[in-house]
Design goal:
69% of the residues lie in helices and 0% in strands. It is mostly helical and 191 residues long. α1 packs antiparallel against α2 and α5 runs antiparallel to α6. It has a domain of 56 residues.
Length: 191
């Protein structure tokens, strides 16, 4: 679940950034033991560094050790992650909580991320997965439709995007009784 770091992160030296990149370059998802050991070693040399705690959490998460990852994500959050690393951590933490069946906690983490990064497609997709697993499929579909219709220019949705966006809102609102009026208003029934 951990993603390749894309830019410098507060509190990390260029040397630590490079060390993190090396860890990813050596990663074997089928055998995460060496990656876990590598990131644990980095953390041992820089105890309490929130980004490194997050990276260790991600390595355990990728290895399928969700409970250990959960503990480490919580520690990284408590240590004060910021910026895009915080967004990624909240996505991964929310996903881990989903795997552990802790849907309310997962949604709380992802809702926090959505408040801070309302345009993040990644946040919306992870949130949709949790909504679906929590039995809230209409909200999950609405969340995914919102992602898709926001990028209509790279799909073949064309003129349907606006109407489908209205249907996404209707689903998110719990299917209010005025469906026909809503569809007419949003233009979905007009081709």
């Amino acid at each position: 679940m951990t993603t390749q770091p894309s830019d410098a992160r507060p509190g990390l030296t260029p040397e630590l950034e490079e060390a993190i990149r090396r860890g990813y370059a050596q990663r074997d998802r089928a055998n995460m033991g060496p990656t876990i050991a590598y990131f644990e070693s980095l953390l041992a040399g820089h105890p309490g560094q929130p980004v490194l705690v997050y990276e260790v959490a991600g390595a355990y998460d990728t290895a399928g050790q969700e409970e250990k990852a959960r503990e480490l994500y919580e520690r990284a959050l408590d240590l004060g992650l910021a910026g895009d690393t915080l967004r990624r951590c909240l996505c991964q933490y929310g996903s881990t909580l989903r795997w552990l069946g802790q849907y309310d906690k997962s949604l709380a983490a992802l809702d926090r991320a959505k408040r801070e990064w309302p345009e993040s497609d990644a946040v919306r997709v992870f949130r949709a997965l949790t909504l679906n697993d929590a039995g809230r499929s209409d909200e999950a579909v609405a969340e995914l439709m919102t992602v898709i219709t926001a990028h209509a220019e790279v799909t073949d949705l064309g003129r349907w995007a606006e109407g489908l966006s209205g249907v996404a809102q209707w689903l998110a609102d719990g299917r209010p009784d005025n469906l026909l009026a809503h569809e007419l208003e949003s233009g979905l029934l007009r081709h």
